[in-house]
Amino acid sequence: MSKSRFQCYLTYFIMSQTYRIKSFRLSNPFATDMTLLLFPITTNLTRLESLTINNIESDYFEGVINHLFSLPSLSSLVITSIDYITNQNDIYQKIFRLPTLKYCQILCETLKHLRAMSIATNEFSSIEYLVINNKVSIDQLYSLLPYVPQLRRLSLGHLCEPRWSRTDMNSIILNYLTYVSLELYSVSFDNFESII
Fold first, then answer.
1. Rounded to an integer, what distance in angstroms lies between the CA atom of residue 145 and that of residue 113?
2. CA–CA distance, 169 with 140 (Å, rounded to integer)
3. Could you tell me the domains of the chain?
4. Per-residue pLDDT tens for 167-189?
5. pLDDT tens figures, 38-76
6. The Cα angle at residue 129 between residues 124 and 135, in degrees rounded to 5
7. 24-33, pLDDT tens digit by residue?
8. CA distances to 41, 104, 108, 172 from 127, in Å
9. Taking a C-beta distance cutoff of 8 angstroms, is the pair 109, 84 a contact?
10. How far is CA 92 from each of CA 33, 117, 133, 159, rounded to the nearest angstrom?
């Protein structure tokens, strides 16, 4: 779809129906159209429950996440980046702060070393289904899990060795967890054992 056609579609079909839209999906969005055209209407998407944005450029990834706070009913988010982002942990923390989110599927690769997030103190997410398709280190996993105490299903598409050897990994209790899917990449048995 051309940019001009997309703008017409957005203006005549989407903007007139924002109060009715419950699900919205964009694939291969135009970066400029995302920031200039879509974001002004997000405050009117008060009934939006499900949002899928595929193949967004990393320059606009965090901006998209920041605009999600204006969606009071958002319970499902699928978002993928086509290139590398600078800081995964900032993205994760912002997503975990979305108050009504129950399902999150994300793909955001980084070229930097995978670092653990800051410890969750009083910040807890409502997410119950978490799918991370990018590389996640065991360090990151241990720092992510305390943010999602309501987690029922966890799927990691690329779990890898921790950057630093840690022996103080306390067990994390996830009372509602019923399903786990892990794709392991060069993870030693000792590190795998520490997860289970």
1. 19
2. 12
3. 3-195 (3.80.10.10)
4. 455 667 889 999 999 988 878 77
5. 666 777 889 999 999 988 888 888 888 988 998 999 999
6. 90
7. 888 766 555 5
8. 25, 7, 18, 16
9. yes
10. 24, 9, 13, 16
